Amino acid sequence: MTTTATSETPMVFADRVSKSFGSNEVLKGISLTVPRGEVMCLVGPSGSGKSTFLRCINHLERVDAGRLSVDGVLVGYEERGDKLYELKPREAARQRRDIGMVFQRFNLFSHMTALENIIEAPMRVNKLTKDDAVARGRELLARVGLDEKEDAYPAHLSGGQQQRVAIARALAMEPKLMLFDEPTSALDPELVGEVLDVMKGLAKSGMTMIVVTHEMGFAREVADQLVFMDGGVVVEAGNPDEVLGNPQHQRTKAFLSKVL
Ligand code: ADP
Ligand code: MG
């Protein structure tokens, strides 16, 4: 698997990406570009295909048609000359290691402490020594404001703290792209801010991010692009102030009137 990515290569490039489950066409030709270092917020009603799109980027679903690349490498396929070959599982796994994903539910290992959750993959997958993994894990816990909690088990952490550990755990693999799928939707309202603050810091540090969220304040402040999806298509995309302030499509207006 070779890549000719340069600083000009978008981190994510989707060109007419389609995906069906049986007869249900969930993605109907999604085209979008996320340049490296930028943040895209993806919004839209439930069932519009947002999670499926993230899952395609992360090799959790297979694209049926169209092209999808991460950092210049086709996802699901490999190009040799003018032919496309399906990626082997090992190549797909290799690509996935560069992508961090944070879900609505925290998905921490309940039998491991915060620090153990963070060092597990770097030790097992990246073969870091325990000392190195722990040193890095502590730095990451400090970065998400949880340096006091390294020995705490998930059950003893609030939802917001668990989600911050989940972000630190994803960062421990040094991803070049972070995907967030409604990371604050399951949180009590008073815990949302602390998670969004960590995400804002990450965006400021230059991380490339795609964030599915209904937090429009966050989108307005952090996103370079806001994409509104409905029914498996991109209805509208652009600068968040423009899309939020002056939506062009009736469907966007109707959706925004419910979440703003
Ligand atoms: P969103 O994240 O925007 O709410 P999803 O991507 O989760 O939307 O779902 C879009 C559509 O795809 C829904 O109709 C959902 O039922 C369907 N879907 C998602 N995953 C699967 C699956 N694994 N098998 C069958 N249908 C699925
Ligand atoms: Mg979803």
From TrEMBL:
Q: What PANTHER family does the record tag this protein with?
A: AMINO ACID IMPORT ATP-BINDING PROTEIN (PTHR43166), PHOSPHONATES IMPORT ATP-BINDING PROTEIN PHNC (PTHR43166:SF4)
Enumerate the InterPro entries for this protein: AAA+_ATPase, ABC_ATPase_HisP-typ, ABC_transporter-like_ATP-bd, ABC_transporter-like_CS, MetN_ABC_transporter-like, P-loop_NTPase
Protein name (record): ABC-type polar-amino-acid transporter
Tell me if Lipoprotein is a UniProt keyword of this record: no
Checking Gene3D superfamilies in the record gives: P-loop containing nucleotide triphosphate hydrolases
Protein species of origin? Rhodoglobus vestalii
Q: What is its EC number?
A: 7.4.2.1
According to the entry, every stretch annotated as the ABC transporter domain falls at: 12-256
List keywords of the entry alphabetically: ATP-binding, Nucleotide-binding, Transport
- Please give the family membership noted in the entry: Belongs to the ABC transporter superfamily.
Query: Is Hydrolase given among the entry's keywords?
Result: no
